[in-house]
Specification:
alpha/beta; Rossmann fold; binds thymidine-5'-diphosphate; 5-stranded parallel beta sheet
Amino acid sequence: MVRAFIVLEGIDGSGTTTHSQLLTKFLEEKGLNVHLTQEPSSSIIGDLLKKILLDENIPPETDALLFAADRLIHYKNEIEKKLEDGYIVISDRYLESSIVYQSSQTDDISIEWIENINRFVGIPDITIILDLPPEISLKRKLSHLKLTGKNKEKFENLDFLGKVRNKFLERAKEKGYKIIKSENSIESIQNEIQNYIKSQLKL
Ligand code: TYD
């Protein structure tokens, strides 16, 4: 039985959602039990966060606290249970998004504080960072918004996403996360992700 907690992270538009879905399908086709999930989660706090992401007037500390609260429900009620049942859990974003996004919002938020308010949740076994220049990220996001008619979220601007990208890369170096460049075709990026996961899980 293979049991692992895998997380895909990256700036907006880097493809965490697409690649989490494709990876889930790939592992399921190998006969494995896989549970796909995402943050903000489907909890009541996750629903609130989706509205808050459109609101520029919420203090960043409130964002951080709500993401931590949502994550605790997500981990305790969903992720931990699925892992105990022998599933591979794949989460489209998790704790590194809080560390990187919320500490980029203001100098008043330290990484230590974010780690501290998130200290009750489990740590992923594998973290992959999908890396993309913010110019491409924003282009992808804006064309997606046009298609779906959705509103722009507060983090979707060039300077901020540049900061977030650099922090993801710094954290990856420090923590040994796998970095995968996300500019090529979906197929070749997914291939690289699958090869990495196969080697890590010894499939
Ligand atoms: P979403 O619309 O799901 O973006 P995407 O599809 O690009 O992943 O919203 C997630 C946004 O919330 C994204 O901008 C990252 C941000 N976020 C945080 O700031 N902190 C967090 O802890 C998490 C999980 C996400």
